[in-house]
Here is the input.
Amino acid sequence: MTSEVLPQIRMTGGYIPTKDVNGNILSEEEIVERAHEIIGRTLQMLNSKSEYCLTATQVAASWGMDVLSFNNLLAGMGILYRKGGRWQLNDELQGRGLAEVRNFIYYSLNGKYRTKRYLVWTQEGIDFLNMAVRKMPRNFTANIQLNLEF
Here is the structure.
């Protein structure tokens, strides 16, 4: 086992079994299926905290807004900022359970494995946003629908 597992980890960064429990060599389709199962379990583990959170698109739609306007509104309020192509919570709001990060795994057109990370809102975060918007001048927030719960 060591003669197969360690070289594959060194060469590819991971190990996917190429033989079944009886020692028979798996087909390419079976190997790919096993790889997908491993990736699926990994993604489920990475996203466990964000499972019941809502995306910015979902929250924006509930407020009657598009996601770009929503994120720009929150940036203008000092809640979000954009860094490295991602929206992030302001440093003072980090660690308060307002949002989590969700991971999305995909393959580029040239077959390279990629992970995209994006912010999702918890119920606590949505409550915080509703309160923050209520404190703004009414003419600024007249078209925003509040009190989203999930």
In short: The CA atoms of residues 87 and 112 lie 24 Å apart. The radius of gyration is 21 Å.
